[in-house]
Design goal:
With 324 residues, the chain is an alpha+beta fold. It is built from six helices and 16 strands.
Length: 324
């Protein structure tokens, strides 16, 4: 039997890139065994989610989840954290994002989880891997990671009817000081935002906190992509912009669950999308970094549902993000 050799999409022919990163061949999408519960878009020919589309057209209010639903989301988030930890171990000089995708896919299957990105509006892989100037939604391919790269891994897992979403940015080998500062700034931006989470906080106030930290570190906040509600749907209300003077609606209430995931650029905040219709990159080719948690609003504050083990409050550790 002949196997088709993966190639780079012809859509890139003649494309002018903003930075030095180039796409590499992408291998075929992986299969999820039929016994694993799957979201409504998993088997749709275009990956459309009827649940999400219905929620948008009905102007649904921000969900307040029951104790039973919260337990389901908490379980999905715990699995997501385990999967991200496994993916992080795969990062090293010479590893490919395709290999990281394999690790994520297999870790999900082992835990009875569906990798939420797979076939979501046609996304071809089980995880998003965003390297250097890629802001988000990078498609894992056969490019090898090189010394000095930064690599974000964005994991979402669907477990027994609920999603859990998180990401972290890792250092590949010896990374320059500017990139280390960028990654630490992205972490601090999320940290500042999370500290505001409690009943009564306006969702629009998240952007001011993120914007100040970014501005104080000579960075800028991406405006195109936002945090979002999550639970039985991958994306739902509320919509949470990460930049100041936004017009986000709503006030936090106990039982709300959502992600905060500011994308922080070393240069301009503007983005552009590669011809694969997914990969978002900086317009100037400078680097971007990101961290994300799924968060529950409690009666007196918050719970990081995707927290690292024994880390209920975010703590910066360069060592935990360093890879060979």
């Amino acid at each position: 039997m002949c196997h088709k050799v993966p190639t780079v999409s012809p859509a890139f022919s003649g494309y002018t890139f903003s930075g030095v990163l180039r796409p590499a061949p992408v291998t075929p999408k992986k299969i999820v065994p039929p016994h694993i519960p799957r979201p409504d878009y998993a088997d749709h020919s275009l990956g459309h989610s009827k649940g999400e589309e219905s929620s948008k057209t009905s102007n649904a209010s921000i969900p307040i989840y029951s104790a039973k639903q919260i337990e389901g989301i908490r379980k999905a988030c715990k699995v997501g954290r385990e999967v991200l930890n496994e993916a992080g171990k795969a990062i090293k000089v010479g590893a490919t994002a395709d290999e990281i995708d394999r690790v994520v896919h297999e870790a999900c299957i082992e835990r009875g989880a569906y990798p939420s990105p797979l076939n979501y509006y046609g996304f071809p892989k089980s995880v998003c891997t965003s390297v250097n100037e890629v802001i988000c939604h990078g498609i894992p391919d056969l490019r090898e990671l090189v010394e000095g790269d930064i690599c974000n891994i964005d994991v979402t897992t669907y477990v027994d009817g609920f999603h859990g979403d998180l990401n972290e940015t890792f250092f590949v080998g010896n990374v320059d000081k500017e990139s280390k500062k960028l990654v630490k700034t992205a972490f601090a931006c999320l940290q500042a935002a999370v500290q505001l989470v409690k009943p009564g906080t306006m969702y629009r106030d998240i952007g001011a906190a993120v914007g100040k930290v970014a501005r104080d570190n000579n960075c800028q906040v991406v405006r195109t992509y936002c945090g979002h509600g999550i639970g039985e749907l991958f994306h739902t209300t509320p919509n949470i912009p990460h930049y100041p003077k936004n017009k986000a609606k709503g006030i936090m209430k106990a039982g709300n669950v959502f992600t905060i995931e500011p994308m922080i650029n070393m240069g301009h905040w503007q983005d552009r999308t590669w011809p694969d219709n997914w990969t978002a990159v900086t317009v100037d080719g400078k680097r971007s970094a990101q961290f994300e948690h799924t968060i529950l609003v409690t009666e007196d504050g918050y719970e990081l549902l995707t927290a690292r083990e024994n880390e209920p409050v975010m703590k910066w550790s360069e060592e935990l993000l360093q890879r060979g």
